[in-house]
Amino acid sequence: MPSKTDKRVTPTNGGPLLGDPTDGIDPYLPKNGNLGYRVSRYELDLEYKVASNRLAGVAIITATSLTRLTRFTLDLATSLTVSRVSVNGRRPARYSHRDNKIAITMTDALPPGAAMTITVKYGGSPRPIRGPWGEVGFEELTEGALCANQPNGAASWFPCDDHPSSKAPYLISITTDSPYVAIANGTLARKRTKAAQTTWVYEQVEPMATYLATLQIGPYVQKTLSSRPVRISAVLPERLSSNFAHDFGRQKQIMDEFCDMFGPYPFPAYTVVVTDDNLEIPIEAQGLSTFGANHCDGTRGSERLVAHELAHQWFGNSLTLSRWTDIWLHEGFACYSEWLWSERAGEETADALARRHHRALAAGRKDIIIGDPGPASMFDDRVYKRGALTLHALRLSVGDEAFFAMLRQWTRDYRYSSVSTADFTDLAARYSDTSLSALWQRWLRQKAVPEFPGD
Fold first, then answer.
1. Is cis: bond before 219, omega within 30 of 0?
2. Considering the domain boundaries, does residue 394 fall inside one?
3. Count of the separate structural domains present in the chain
4. What is the pTM of this model?
5. Distance of alpha carbon 181 from its chain centroid, rounded?
6. Which carries the bigger pLDDT value, residue 294 or residue 5?
7. What spatial distance separates the first Cα and last Cα of the chain, rounded to whole Å?
8. What does the alpha-carbon distance between residue 259 and residue 232 come to, in Å, rounded to a whole number?
C-alpha cells in the first residue's frame, strides 16, 4: 500500500542510485534504504541449520521502478555471500556486494513504471549488524535463533529495501530440523515434514516494514490462549509453562481493553514467543512479540512490557513511522498504553503514573527534543516517557471522549500506512476547540520539561 506521507526523495536523472547519504533516504540511517523503486512483495525461501548456524536463502522481490533505472541497490549484510542475481529472469550486466549493499547494474535500462522481479540467491553464517544501538538483526540462541531487526537489522538475514516506509506483503518459507518449531510473521499457510526436516510457510498479507519481519526458531511447545475475538497463541519452552500461565495470564484481557480503546486489532492473530535465553528487552514484530525467559519468572513483574509490546501492533506495526525522526509515535504511544492498561486494570491511574514520571524527567537531564531526538538518542527512555506525557497532556486538553475517539480514528484512517507527526497533529486539531500549537511546541519541540499538564 503506498505511503500516505511518503517523504522519500527520488532522483529523476536516471543516474546511479546507491543509497548514500546525499540521496535523502533518512538522516538517522543514511546508509539504509534504496531509491528508484518501490517493493510490492517479498518471497523468502530459507533453510537454517541450527547446529552450524548456516542459512541458505533465495529471495524473490517484486517491485516497480519509479524512475528510469540503469542501476539500483538492495540492503544485505556482507557477512552473507551472494551467489546469483537476476532481474526479470535475466542476469544483470554486473553486480557487486560490499558495504552491506548489493549494487545491480542493468544491461538495458528499465523505464519508469516497469515491473521488476529481482531474485537473489545467498547464504552463509548470519550474524547481527553492529551499529550505534548495539547488535541488531539475526541472533543465535543457545538452541535456535531469533531476528530482532529494529532499526536496521533486516539486512542481516535477507536482501531488502531496509527503510521503515517501504512496507510490503511477505511469503516466508523456513526449513529447519524437525525437532524445532519455526515461527515467522503472518498466518501459517502450510507445513510439511520430510525426512528429518520440516518446512513452515507463512503468509503475511498486510504490508510490513522490513524491521518488523522476524524468524523465531527453537525447541518450543505451542499453546492457544484465546480464539475470540482475536486468536492469541504462545510459543515457549515447556519448562516455562507454569510461569507463563501466571505472567501472561491477563494477555487476553489486555487485548480486549486495547481493542476497546484503539479499535479492532489490525492483524489476523497475535503470537507471544518466549525464548529459553534471557533477553535484555522484549522485541515486537508484526503480529507477534518476543520475550526472554527472564520476563517469564512467575512474578508477573513484566506485565507492563506485555502491554507495551501488544500496543505496538497498532502503533508501530499497522501504523509505521515514515522516518525515524518520529519514533515517539511508536514508543510514546506504547508507553502510554502501559499506563492506560494499569488504569483499566484498577491499579495506578494514568494520571498518577504520568505525575511520577514527570517528576523524574523534571529532575533529570534536559538535553533532548522528543520530536527529533537524533539517531543516538532515538531509543532513549525519555522519548518513551515524555512521548507518553505528550499524549496525557493532549488527553487532558481535549477530554477523554474526544481523546479515545481520536485514537480510534487514527488507527482506522491510517491502517497499514506510513505516518508522521504532522499527520497526527493535523488529526488532533479536529478534536480540539482551541489551538494545540503551544502544546506541541512545549512537549515535542523544546528541551525544557514543561509543567505537568493542567497544573
1. no
2. yes
3. 3
4. 0.94
5. 22
6. 294
7. 43
8. 13
- Give the number of other CB atoms < 10 A from CB of residue 278: 10
Report the C-alpha gap between 186 and 132 in whole angstroms.
30
**Lookup: cell for 413:** 484512517
Domain boundary among 201, 218, 235: 218
Cβ proximity of 21 and 30 under 8 Å: yes
Question: In angstroms, rounded to a whole number, what is the distance separating the alpha carbons of residues 338 and 334?
Answer: 7
Let me know if residue 22 belongs to a domain: yes
Among 1-15, 33-47, 397-411, name the one with the lowest average pLDDT: 1-15
Give the Cα separation of 39 and 58 in Å (integer).
16
* Rounded CA separation 373/355 (Å): 22
Check: CB of residue 50 under 8 Å from CB of residue 180.
yes
d(C-alpha 305, C-alpha 316), whole Å: 15
* Residue-wise pLDDT tens digits, 278-307: 999 999 999 999 999 999 999 999 999 999
Same domain for 227 and 189, yes or no, is: no
Look over the chain and give the mean of its residue pLDDT values, rounded to a whole number.
Answer: 93
Residue 218: which H helix or E strand, with range? strand 215-218
Q: Measured on CA atoms in the order 8, 11, 14, 15, is the torsion positive or negative?
A: negative
Rounded Cα distance between 262 and 392, Å, is 15
Residue 105: its H or E element: strand 101-110
**256 phi, psi to nearest 5 deg:** -60, -45
Identify whether residues 253 and 359 lie together within a single domain. no
Question: Angle, to 10 degrees, between the axis of helix 328-344 and the axis of helix 251-262?
Answer: 110
Domain presence at residue 452: no
- Residues 26/418, Cβ–Cβ less than 8 Å: no
What residues does 119 pair with on adjacent strands?
A: 60, 86
- With beta carbons less than 8 A apart as the criterion, state whether 315 and 327 touch: no
Grid cell listed for 107 = 544491461
One DSSP character per residue, 253-312 reads HHHHHHHHHH-S-SSSEEEEEE-SS--SS-EEETTEEEE-GGG-SSS-TTHHHHHHHHHT
Predicted confidence (pLDDT) at residue 10 exceeds the cutoff of 60: no
**Hey, which residues does 174 pair with through a beta bridge?**
46, 200
Give dist(CA 57, CA 47) in Å, integer.
6
